[in-house]
Amino acid sequence: MRRPDTAYVNGKVYTVDGKFSVVSAFCVEGDRFVAAGTDDEIRALCTPETKIVDLGGKCVLPGLIDSHLHVNNTGAMKMELNIVGRQREEIVAMVAEAYKAAKPGEWIVGRGWLNDEWNDKSFPTKEELDAVAPDIPVYLKRACGHAAWVNSAAFASVGVTSDTPDPTGGEYLRTEDGSLLGTVTDQAQDPFNKAIPPYNREQLQRIVLLAQESFLAAGLTTVHDAGTAEEWIQAWEELYQKHELKLRIYASMRVVGRPNYQELMEGSMRYFQKGLRIGMYDNRLTARSYKISGDGSLGARSAWMLEDYDDRPGHKGNGKWTDEQLYNVLYEAHRAGFQIWVHAIGDAANRQALDVYERILKEIPDGDARLRIEHAQMLSLDDIPRFKKLGVIPTHQTVFLRTDKKVAEARIGRERMKGAYAWRTLIDDGNPVPNGTDSPVESYNPFLSMYCAVTRMDENGQPEGGWYPQEAMTREEALRSYTTWGAYAGFEEKLKGSIETGKLADFIVIDRDFMTCPAEEIKDIQVLETVLGGETVYKK
Fold first, then answer.
1. Angstrom distance (rounded) from CA 486 to CA 67
2. Ranges of H-type helices in 436-494
């Protein structure tokens, strides 16, 4: 057996192994766990040179894995207008301030508005922005990323007028007289995305380091990046080589923006020809998966539903691809060996993804493809058993509950809610349910997300007793959703997710006992120390 460099004793250590064992001590050599057990068992393995760390009874968990977030978008929130939690008049005032410093040719860019939390919940208008930014283009993404608030200068910059038809998979929202409102959804965001100057390599590196700082302080040692561009990988590689970037990133390659079908196929084929990259830089960077979006979001009413929205008759949302288009690109991804992720919120998008997956697996059988559906948010009851049958992984973001509960019933009604946010049902069917936050859509705080998973309440304890509480997770399941299930979703269950011999020495020390503290305190848990590969990378 390897002799440990460091031993940690006198703790409350949740190993999250198969038996959910709880021990008091463990030890590390290099970047791996050597053993876990009692204080006496671990001390017996030590040499005179072994450093002994007394945990003082504190709680230890494996390093946490966020199975769906956006690395660059999270870091960029510190470089753009951060309008999270702001009322519409506050946002207009922030744009007015940004306008004073803006130079001709620049765009004012931001993210985070959520009309469902405004006093006036209607979608915002171009006139509100025109009043404070008449000649500089403004592009403000909704928190979900599937809609944007733009001004007249932005419309003019990209050549969109009231005569421009809506693209497939998106809308230019309009007033009653047919003129442009000032809100665009999904594929209608494409011309703006193409017009906004992209970040250069130096900026991309600053962004990922800002994101890393936030994630490590929150106890995240691995993140699954839900849509990665090749130029981001190249920027990150330089930082890995310099040992400045330490965070483990599981990258899902994506043709970023809102591509049309031709752009999608051409960009995707370049990824498939480049092939898989696994375990680079001491298991810190892997690019073996591929992501595509099948619809939009519930808040933007662009999630694709089988039946009309209750609060917008005649509208079913926005599916992005025909069955054949989706099949064509995913067939090539599967043939190239890539794990596939399909973003699907609505029940129609989920059914389309499951149908295409079933067809592909019949043509190219793979008993361990671990195909994923990201969000799997609203499901037809008939489709829920298909996840287990096909081996498809439903990846959820339990923190969505805190905001979606305000609009979900109005959008789809109580009957369709029976298949929505169905964590308990999916788990009881035998599915792992990896968890994440979709940051910056929601806070990247994993303990807020696990709190929502366990209580089915928002951070203010509402609704009392929980929102559809029968779909809650247990605490053990919530912890597995951020550890072993996340590792499995990335083909890394032999490397990480639990404190066991031979696995990567990623763990966190927290300020209270996750399993026994009052449920309302889970959201308040603070990380005291984050250790990644045996190295302390954050200390409070």
1. 6
2. 446-455, 475-481, 484-489
